[in-house]
UniProtKB/TrEMBL annotation:
Membrane topology, from the record: Multi-pass membrane protein
Name of the featured protein: Sodium:proton antiporter
Alphabetized Gene3D superfamilies for the sequence: 1.20.1530.20
Keyword Hydrolase annotated: no
Length: 398
């Protein structure tokens, strides 16, 4: 265990020291950590021998997503939405539902043996995007500000929006397998998961922010403690909701939205450390994913899974986004750019682990499809972020 910990720590230290140089090139942190996980794993060098189970991957991925949901929602202020010509609202309210519908329809073609609800689950699990996989575009001044802001807001909110949809389809699928009245059971499960998540997220965040405001007013908070409250609040929302059999992800998402509303100024100072920890946990998740999953996925691929995965990254994402942006005055390249940068990452990994644990008949096909799409996305979006961003400057595309 200590040898593996040492290898991981040394690698993270080296990467943190050279990250600025690496990410200026057609490369991204998730690619580097994913490749490291594969190379260090049992299928290549085998220098890390610990048996990494699905439970370990689940814990890292869930904690990472919980923190990311809270911090992303906390930074999605409404002024950004107004500045961006309504682009993120269109992508979320029109593009996201169309993506799920198109993913479902094409899933029926490529996975004819799967039950309808399990095809719907694949479509939902692959709908949310992960801005970290295209990080280069957010730091590139050649990409218009409105596009950077639109993609950042969309990515920050769409995984939270997909959570209740996933719960609904999952509850329907489980009740169908159990030969119970599907709608009644599904609505009961959905109400409990979402209801508890909402109450915990709103209640815990409201109490936490009020306490912080009193502490700031009385000058009780010391500067070196500023990074701690947000991390602790996000984990408290998640863990409390989960312990009460609610959705910790919904608790974190609505808690982050409420945090944004209640804390008007000085958010960046208290959110910075939380975002940094979330990014670190996410990168470690990529190592574990590469170590434990990639080798298994490669041996289980079929032509239908690979083609569907490629379509998920292209047609299923790009067409709905393009249609949702009609009438905005956005350039053709701008629409295609925003459609292409819909990378699949952390949320999709967490979603498939949640579904896998329910032992549905098509669990393996769903898992391999989602994992294949994520692997292709890490590579394709990571490598294309900087080159495609440069095209804005080269051709003066506004």
């Amino acid at each position: 265990m200590y040898e593996n910990l040492a290898i991981m720590a040394v690698f993270i230290f080296i990467y943190s020291a050279v990250a600025g140089a690496v990410e200026k090139r057609p490369m991204s942190g998730p690619i580097v950590f994913l490749v490291f996980g594969v190379v260090a794993g049992p299928h290549v060098l085998g220098i890390m021998q610990t048996s990494i189970t699905a439970d370990i991957l689940r814990k890292f991925a869930e904690l990472s997503l919980a923190l990311v949901l809270f911090t992303d929602a906390s930074t999605a202020d409404m002024t950004t939405l107004r500045r961006s010509r309504g682009l993120p609202e269109r992508m979320l309210l029109i593009g996201l539902p169309l993506t799920i519908v198109l993913g479902f329809l094409l899933g029926l073609v490529f996975f004819p043996g799967l039950p309808l609800l399990e095809v719907a689950l694949i479509a939902v699990m692959l709908a949310p995007t992960d801005a970290a996989l295209g990080k280069g575009i957010f730091a590139n001044p050649k990409v218009p500000v409105r596009i950077r802001e639109a993609l950042n807001v969309e990515s920050g909110l769409n995984d939270g929006i997909c959570v209740p949809i996933l719960y609904l389809f999952l509850a329907l699928a489980l009740s169908t397998e159990a030969h119970e009245a599907p709608m009644g059971l599904a609505l009961e499960l959905l109400a409990r998961e979402i209801g508890i998540g909402l109450v915990v997220g709103l209640g815990a965040t409201a109490l936490g922010v009020l306490l912080l405001k009193v502490s700031f007013h009385r000058h009780w908070v010391q500067e070196f403690w500023l990074p701690v409250p947000v991390v602790a609040l996000a984990f408290a929302c998640y863990a409390l909701a989960q312990s009460l059999e609610g959705s910790g992800f919904i608790a974190c998402f609505v808690g982050g939205l409420l945090f944004d509303i209640m804390v008007k100024g000085g958010k960046s100072q208290v959110l910075e450390a939380a975002e940094g920890l979330g990014n670190t946990l996410a990168l470690i998740t990529w190592v574990i994913f590469g170590f434990a999953v990639v080798g298994e996925v490669v041996t289980s691929l079929s032509w239908s899974i690979v083609v569907y995965s490629l379509l998920s990254l292209t047609l299923i994402r790009i067409l709905p986004v393009y249609l949702s942006l009609a009438g905005t005055g956005e350039s053709v390249y701008g629409k295609l750019f925003m459609g292409w940068f819909g990378p699949r990452g952390l949320a999709s990994i967490v979603f498939i682990i949640m579904v896998w644990q329910k032992n549905l008949p098509g669990s393996r096909i769903m898992a391999v499809t989602v994992a294949c799409t994520v692997i292709l996305s890490v590579i394709a979006h990571g490598l294309s972020a900087n080159p495609m961003a440069k095209l804005f400057g080269r051709f003066k595309i506004e």
